[in-house]
């Protein structure tokens, strides 16, 4: 069973994309959240985290395999939450990380893509410095194909 952390997992996109994985029973899903939601998805565990605290995030990610980020990048000033999440994934020795890339990033200077571009650059810098360890960072462009491979089911977005 693959143990998956989902940052920002209480939002609409994450909730919808996780349905097939939850239903399959092949994944142990842990939602990382800033506060406990009133309504919880059965069969999913929740951990309240502080994205500004590397120790909090690292502890929450310990023992997991993959982290999918659904953080709202336009609300993540200077990409601090997602950068902390990446550092914690490395510290916790996760195998896979997918940054919050649920729309296109294209380095065109568009303000709504600025944080996506910054995270792509940050991951390149961390990789070039040899600091990713065993972490594979995948940007989920072509998400339909990737989610289909991950869940074994067709997902239309």
Automatic annotation (TrEMBL):
<comment type="similarity">
    <text>Belongs to the NmrA-type oxidoreductase family. Isoflavone reductase subfamily.</text>
</comment>
<dbReference type="GO" id="GO:0016491">
    <property type="term" value="F:oxidoreductase activity"/>
</dbReference>
<dbReference type="InterPro" id="IPR008030">
    <property type="entry name" value="NmrA-like"/>
</dbReference>
<protein>
    <recommendedName>
        <fullName>NmrA-like domain-containing protein</fullName>
    </recommendedName>
</protein>
<dbReference type="InterPro" id="IPR036291">
    <property type="entry name" value="NAD(P)-bd_dom_sf"/>
</dbReference>
<feature type="domain" description="NmrA-like">
    <location>
        <begin position="3"/>
        <end position="123"/>
    </location>
</feature>
<keyword id="KW-0560">Oxidoreductase</keyword>
<dbReference type="Pfam" id="PF05368">
    <property type="entry name" value="NmrA"/>
</dbReference>
<dbReference type="InterPro" id="IPR051609">
    <property type="entry name" value="NmrA/Isoflavone_reductase-like"/>
</dbReference>
<keyword id="KW-0521">NADP</keyword>
